[in-house]
């Protein structure tokens, strides 16, 4: 597989081929997932929950992220590496520049930040300085204490209208990609059609340009024993982990995942 770039991801959206993304935190899984055809390896701050055992992503630091980005880089075979800026690491422009530099120098190709239209200035400054940005909208787990829990976002019409407008604002600011988490499937479809940049969904239905899942979730691994409704266990019926990841890639590509029961209504 040739190296995945922002241009090739845009090309996939334009020709209607779904984009596959999976979280990844170490070299061995980076090797396995990129060999299986996963186009984007997301070094997500979900590592705070699935690797470190915290009950939220808030304790994760930029140093934690850089360690895992560097590990993923060593195993990666041509996928794009997308890295999260963790909680409160992009509160000021200076902080944002310094922390993005740390993650890009560790091996990231694109940076993900959580928020809405207020991210516009940061996205513009980063894009101007050579850093592609993915805007994570909808359920933004770093804001769990403001949102009052891990809840579906955009169910009320006013909120949905705001999210549609914010997506366009962020595209105009220079965002290279949007990630929508836990939003009604119809709203995700509208946003996907309203912007030219790729939109990746998790709990956002099948109409987005691609899908992402947390690696441990799709392998059926959980500390709590509970799984979000948008997760499918891809280990079921598979002999090993590489086969489960390959099954995920096929299911996203042929749009058999996510099924309607994995999505949310307004
Ligand atoms: O941190 C992460 O893994 C994420 C996904 C849930 C999309 O942001």
Q: Any overview of this molecule?
A:
The protein has 266 residues and is an alpha/beta fold. The protein is 41% helix and 14% strand. It has helices spanning 6-15, 27-35, 47-50, 62-75, 93-106, 120-128, 144-147, 157-173, 185-194, 215-218, 241-253, and strands at 19-23, 40-43, 80-84, 110-114, 133-138, 177-181, 199-202, 210-213. The chain has an eight-stranded parallel barrel, surrounded by eight helices. The model has no long low-confidence stretch (mean pLDDT 97). 3-methyl-2-oxobutanoic acid is lined by residues 23, 42, 44-46, 84, 136, 179, 181, 202, 212, 214.
Brief sketch in words of this structure:
The chain is built from 11 helices and 8 strands.
Describe how the helices and strands are arranged.
Elements: H1 6-15, E1 19-23, H2 27-35, E2 40-43, H3 47-50, H4 62-75, E3 80-84, H5 93-106, E4 110-114, H6 120-128, E5 133-138, H7 144-147, H8 157-173, E6 177-181, H9 185-194, E7 199-202, E8 210-213, H10 215-218, H11 241-253
Parallel strand pairs: 1-2, 1-8, 2-3, 3-4, 4-5, 5-6, 6-7, 7-8
Helix pairs in contact: 2-4, 4-5, 6-8, 8-9
Ligands in the model, by name, code or SMILES, are:
3-methyl-2-oxobutanoic acid
Spatially, the strands of the biggest sheet line up as: 1-2-3-4-5-6-7-8
Q: Give the averaged pLDDT, no decimals.
A: 97
How much helical structure, as a percent, in the residues?
40-55%
Uncertain ranges: none
H-E string: HEHEHHEHEHEHHEHEEHH
Radius of gyration: 17 Å
The 3D shape can be described as: globular
Number of separate strands: 8
Largest sheet: 8 strands, parallel, barrel
* Count of runs of 4 or more consecutive helical residues: 11
Task: Label the structural class.
Answer: alpha/beta
The share of residues in extended strands comes to 5-15%
Straight-line distance between termini: 38 Å
